[in-house]
Amino acid sequence: MWRMDRPEVQRSGAPGWVRTAVLAVPPLVLAAAGVTHPMELTRATAHHWLVVHVALVPVFPLLAVAVWVLLARDDGVLAWLARGSAFVYAAFYGALDAVNGVAAGVLVAQTPVGEAADPTAALRPVLRIGNQLGWVGSSAFLVAVLLTVTVLLRRPGRRPWLGAVVVVAASVSFLDSHVYWPRGVVTMVLLAAGLVLLEPTRARQPGWSGPVRPVDVRSFQRPISR
C-alpha cells in the first residue's frame, strides 16, 4: 500500500514587477500632477486646483502602502510602528488634500466675481488648519520611512544604503514641498527611485524561498511501514 503525503508549499507573494509598480507608480503620478499644479489658489486657477486635488485623493494614501509592501514579512515592533506611522500619514495628509485642495478649490471657484477682491482671505483660517494637518501627515511619513529603513538595514545581506539615503532625503523634503514644481516634483521622483532601490532587499529576507516551483508528487510517495 502507498500513502500520499501532501507537501508544504510556501507562497512567494506578488510578482516582483507588481511590487515595483506599487512602490514607484504613486509617487511618479504625484510628480506628473505636480508639473501642472497651480502655484497658488485664485479664481483663475480654482478649477484646475480642484481637478488636480480631486484626482489625487486616492493617490496620496498609496505612499503609505509602500511601507507595508517593504515590510510585508517583518513582524517586529519597529515594523509595526512604521505601519502605524504610515496610517497616520494617510489619514492626516488626506485631510490636507480634502481641506486645502478640494474644499478650498470649490469655495473659491464658486465665489461670484466682484463679491470679494481676494476670495481666499476668508479661507485663511481653514487653510491654516489644513496646513497643520498636512504637517502632521508628512512628519508621520518621515517617521514611517526612518523606521522602515532601520528595519531593512538590520536585515542580513547587502545593506541598501543608496536607497535608504535617497528615500530619507526625499521624505525630509516632503515635509514642506508638497508636489509643487519644481521641488515637489523632484521630491516625488526621488521618492520613487529610493523606494525601488529598497525593494530588492525583501527577496533576500530569511524565510523567503523564491518563486514556487512545480513539485513532483511521486517523490512524496512512500510505502507504509508495518
UniProtKB/TrEMBL annotation:
From the broadest rank down, the organism's phylogenetic lineage runs: Bacteria, Bacillati, Actinomycetota, Actinomycetes, Propionibacteriales
The answer to keyword Membrane applying to this record is yes
- Residues crossing the lipid bilayer are 21-39, 51-71, 78-96, 133-153, 160-175, 181-198
Q: Which UniProt keywords apply?
A: Membrane, Transmembrane, Transmembrane helix
Source domain of life: Bacteria
Question: Know the name of this protein?
Answer: Uncharacterized protein
